[in-house]
From TrEMBL:
The lineage of its organism: Bacteria, Pseudomonadati, Pseudomonadota, Betaproteobacteria, Burkholderiales. GO terms for biological process: cobalamin biosynthetic process; methylation. Pfam families: TP_methylase (PF00590). This is CobF: precorrin-6A synthase (Deacetylating). Transmembrane segments: none annotated. Pathway: Cofactor biosynthesis; adenosylcobalamin biosynthesis. The keyword S-adenosyl-L-methionine applies. It comes from the Bacteria. GO terms for molecular function: precorrin-6A synthase (deacetylating) activity. Keywords: Cobalamin biosynthesis, Methyltransferase, S-adenosyl-L-methionine, Transferase. Residues 7-180 form the Tetrapyrrole methylase domain.
Length: 269
């Protein structure tokens, strides 16, 4: 009988066990293999955070021995991110990156579960929101006899708005969810009342032409012991956030943060 695999893409929130759903806990307990990305020494803490979360759900898991659960570390291939986010060249580069990741996942399944079984990957936030794990799983399923599922987790947006006690959208109004790269390159459309910015490698809010028009709610390491929050008028709060962000990255070696922007005068502000 040929090998068959099942893959669970498990939303892990911001790395806190409290951000796992009950469904996520159950999926982790069933795993035979955890796919663990290796992004190099400077990002080693990200892999360690996944292992700590795993141990919180499966206390008998030994990071060295593993027991019934094995860990497959795979090297994350580099991605060319030099082009603007909406250009064909950028999108082609991302697709090639996804192809390379799919090959790494498929090889890890063959090497570490040669007879098939249940594998999983812990996904920051939720697999459906600004994450490509489902696209990668679809590629793997074209190469191997694979069934896969997405297990929801607490998204960074949920954790941010809950931590600040602020609703995501204004009354009867939309919110635009975008990336720091796109905000930096294209700015904010004039008719957008609220803007949630994810995957910002820097402080793209500093590129807004009129900081006095906005209020910001920012959070880093949401749900973790080092959680840091700040909010207020962007013109005054933005520089303080930029300094805090740089200090936190220096202290911890990595940072995961997100922010919400709303135009002044909104009812919910």
């Amino acid at each position: 009988m040929s090998a068959r695999w099942h893959l669970s893409l498990i939303g892990m929130g911001m790395g806190s066990p409290a951000h796992l759903t009950r469904q996520g806990e159950q999926a982790l307990r069933r795993l035979d293999l955890l796919l663990l990305p290796d992004k190099g020494e400077d990002k080693a803490e990200l892999a360690a955070a996944r292992l700590r979360l795993l141990q919180a759900v499966r206390p008998d898991f030994d990071t060295d021995a593993g027991g019934d659960l094995r860990v497959a570390r795979y090297a994350v291939p580099p991605r060319d991110g030099s082009d603007a986010a909406d250009t064909p060249r950028y999108l082609d580069g991302v697709r090639r990156w996804h192809d390379a990741l799919a090959r790494a996942w498929a090889q890890a399944l063959r090497d570490h579960l040669p007879h098939g079984g249940r594998a999983g990957a812990l996904i920051w936030g939720d697999p459906a929101l600004f994450d490509s794990s489902m696209r990668i799983a679809q590629r793997v399923a074209r190469e191997l006899p694979l069934e896969w599922e997405a297990v929801p987790g607490i998204s960074a947006l949920q954790a941010l708005t809950a931590a600040h006690g602020v609703p995501l959208n204004e009354l009867a109004s939309p919110v635009l969810i975008t990336t720091g790269r796109r905000l930096r390159q294209h700015g904010c459309p004039p008719d957008v009342p609220a803007l949630a910015v994810m995957l910002d490698g820097g402080t793209a809010f500093e590129t807004l032409p009129d900081p006095h028009a906005w209020r910001i709610w920012w959070g880093a390491y949401l749900g973790l012991p080092q959680q840091t929050l700040d909010s207020g008028p962007l013109a005054q709060t933005g520089p303080r956030i930029a300094r805090a962000r740089a200090a936190l990255r220096q202290a911890h070696g990595w940072i995961l943060d997100i922010y919400l922007l709303k135009r002044h005068g909104a009812d919910d502000c």
